[in-house]
Structure formats: C-alpha cells, structure tokens
Design goal:
The protein is an alpha/beta fold and about 425 residues long. Helix 3 packs antiparallel against helix 12 and helix 5 runs parallel beside helix 6.
C-alpha cells in the first residue's frame, strides 16, 4: 500500500479525532502574557496548563536579560555545531554553573530536552548493555531506548520488587555479554505527579549489591523540589548517588534547552558521541545568556516558596473536597475522574466556556479507558483566590458529571 494512502486511512489513536478537536482540545492557542490568566479564543481564562513553575517567564530581570542578549548577539550566534564552530565561553559558563548547582563535576548543554535525552541514552548504552526502566518514563526516554539494540526490561511503575527482578535478569545477561546495566527513572513523573523511588533504587545498589548506573530525568523536579531546588534527588537525600542527571529549561526556567550532568569522563564522552548535538546547531546565545539569569533567580528560594504556597493550598483543598489526586508528591496536580471520551470533551468545554478555567485534559490512550485526567500545574504567579475559585469550579463540574449532564459517547466538536 502507498504510504500516503495508509496514513490517510489510519490517523492514529489521537489523530483520528483531529477534525473535531483541532484548535480547541488539541493544539489550542493560549495568547497574551504568560501568567495565571491568559486569553483563549478571545476570552480570558484562568490557566493551569503552563509549566511556568517559578513564574520566571515574565520576571522583569529575565525579560531584560533576554532583550539585551538578543540585541547584543542576535539569534544566529554562534553559527554551527558546538564541535565545529559553535563553542563559546558563555556556553561553558552555563554548563559549569549548572553542574555546580546540581552537585556534579560537569555538565553539557542540550538543544532540546526531548532529542537531547534520546541522544544521551543512544550514546551511553551499547549493544551488550541492558536497560532497566520504569514503565511510565517520558516518551523521550522511551524513544531513546527504542534506538538501543541491546536488551531492555521494563518494570511496573515504582514497583521496587519488580525492579529487583529485572535487575536480576539483566545481570544474568551482562554476565555473558560483558556489558553493563543502565537503570532509568524519573525524578517526577509528569502525568501522575509522583516522584520516582530514587532512594529505594539506590538502596538496591548500596545494600543488595546490584551493579548498575542510575539515570534520572528530573525535568519537573529541577527547581521545584529539595531544599535548594536541585530536585527529587535532593528531596530524597540521594542526589550524590545519581550517576546521570537530566534536566530541562522548559519548565522551572521557562525557556528552551536542556542539560545533562555527570562526572567529567562521562560528559566528555557524551560531548563527542551524542549525534543530536554533534550534528545540530549550537544553542543560540540569547537562550544561553537568558538561562544564566534564570538559574541565578532559580537559586532564590522566594520563587519556590511561592510555588509551594499555591501547590499545597490547591492539593489540600481538592483532597478535602473528595477529589482523587493519586499519589502525587510534587507540584503536578492530577485530578482523576471517571467518564468516557465524550464526557471528557463536554466537561472540558464547560470548564472553558462557562467557568473560564483552562487546564489540560488527558484521556485514553495516555491514561486507561474510562478515566478522565485533568492536570493542573500550579505556579508562583497563581493566587489563593485562583485556588479557591478552582476548587469550587471542580466541585460543580464533578457534580454535573455524576448527574449525567455530560453524558455522551461521542467526541464534542467544539469547532462546529
């Protein structure tokens, strides 16, 4: 069959609903200044779907640094890949500042978290190595592992007994191949909001003798967790036991780019072997200079404290109102309801049009059939009034859902 004919007739599990959902439920346009309230289809909405955790996106010092860097350097400099002609002292300064802050010897910048994290896995894991990983790892980690030509074993989410079992299987294989084991988990899982069991995984190595290297993607934990904001490793008291730490600028630092931290030997190896960085243009100077300023502000606890004031109030209020937030122990706030895809779209339409509240809707295949997950992302720029309004609104829509007011088996065409 012709490739174009195949994709015309099979749009994929999400793409099959594109006609009804595009521009409203999928690919929506949130406009205006990034804040607690933005504009959606010409109306102001209270927004809980922006990963601007620390409120840095429109911080005056950040905006000033961005503007001055763009004026001084433009978006073109440096031209070329880092290895060939794209290296600058500012890139090196940011890398070392990140490494120092995170408690590692060295760091390396990545143009994007997604392709960068894929490339780290691709570069590190060889044919004879085995990867052991949590089933809820982010898609970028999954795609990185799909490039791995060796064995890999998945364990159920945060199931340490199963993790131990997979490590035993991996060790039997590496005993024959002479390879090593890379164990991959996350600091904070972006949908469920619960932290990866990093401490328990570290204990498998320290107390039970399992031999592996530990990689942690802490995109959501960086800047939000731990006394200084290092992330989930610091929060759990095992930051120094993490071998490879992945972080992104796309959340707490409200920008573009990412980084990997490890010992100096590993970072040097990655710099010379990560294809996505070797063959890609260097991160533009305004993003590097802007990240330096953002990291400086991230270290000030006032922003993290403001975030947690909102996150604690939101989660406490929702739980007291009887909502199921699962096992979240981070700022990510998932609200789990029961319902069909049709009910989910009607509920979300009501939230946005009647109540002026915008949050992300997550349905099958991302979550099991019959579940509606409304994901709220609190930030330092939200207010306690926003929290109170949201809790009362969620009470109202839950009652409507239970009363059958959203009953439908078909996807609402919000663009009709």
């Amino acid at each position: 069959m012709d490739i174009f004919e195949r994709i015309k007739n099979n749009r994929g599990p999400l793409g099959q609903h594109a006609k009804e959902s595009h521009g409203y439920f999928t690919f929506p346009k949130l406009e205006g200044e990034i804040s607690n309230k933005m504009t959606f289809q010409g109306k102001e909405v209270l927004t809980w779907s922006i990963n601007n955790y620390l409120g840095l996106s429109n911080h005056p010092e950040v905006r000033k640094a961005d503007v001055e860097a763009a004026k001084n350097w433009g978006m073109g400099y440096p031209m070329g890949a880092r290895m060939m002609s794209g290296q600058t002292s500012k890139h090196e300064e940011l890398e070392q500042s990140l490494a120092d802050f995170m408690g590692f010897e060295s760091g390396f910048l990545l143009n994007f978290g997604y392709q960068g994290f894929m490339s780290v896995i691709d570069a590190l894991a060889g044919r004879n190595d085995v990867i052991v990983y949590d089933e809820e790892c982010h898609a970028c980690l999954m795609d990185g592992m799909r490039m791995h030509v060796g064995k890999r074993f998945m364990f159920p989410h945060n199931d340490i007994d199963a993790c131990r079992d997979r490590l035993q299987k991996a060790q039997k294989i590496t005993a024959q191949t002479g390879g090593g084991i890379l164990l991959i988990t996350e600091g904070v899982f972006g949908m469920s909001g619960d932290q990866g069991k990093i401490k328990e995984i570290v204990d498998l190595r320290k107390n039970e003798g399992y031999d592996f290297r530990l990689m942690v993607d802490d995109a959501h934990g960086f800047g939000t967790l731990g006394e200084t904001g290092q992330g989930a490793g610091e929060y759990q008291g095992v930051q120094k036991e993490i071998d490879i730490l992945l972080g992104t600028f796309a959340k707490s630092m409200a920008s573009i780019g990412a980084f990997v931290c490890a010992n100096s030997d590993v970072i040097e190896y990655l710099a010379y072997n990560m294809r996505s960085q070797i063959f890609a243009k260097s991160l533009p100077m305004p993003l590097v200079v802007g990240a330096i300023k953002r990291l400086e502000l991230l270290k000030d606890p006032v922003h993290k404290n403001a975030l947690w004031r909102i996150a604690d109030a939101l989660q406490k209020g929702l739980r007291e109102a009887g909502f199921n937030l699962g096992n979240t122990n981070s700022c990510v706030t998932p609200v789990m309801l029961s319902g069909t895809l049709g009910e989910a779209t009607k509920l979300t339409f009501d939230l946005r049009e009647k109540y002026g509240l915008f949050c992300s809707i997550v349905t099958y295949p991302v979550v099991p059939k019959g579940m509606i997950l409304l994901r709220l992302i609190p930030t330092a720029v939200h207010t306690l009034d926003d929290v109170s309004y949201t809790i009362e609104t969620f009470k109202a829509i839950k009652q409507k859902l239970e009363n059958g007011e959203y009953h439908s088996d078909e996807l609402l065409n919000a663009n009709a």
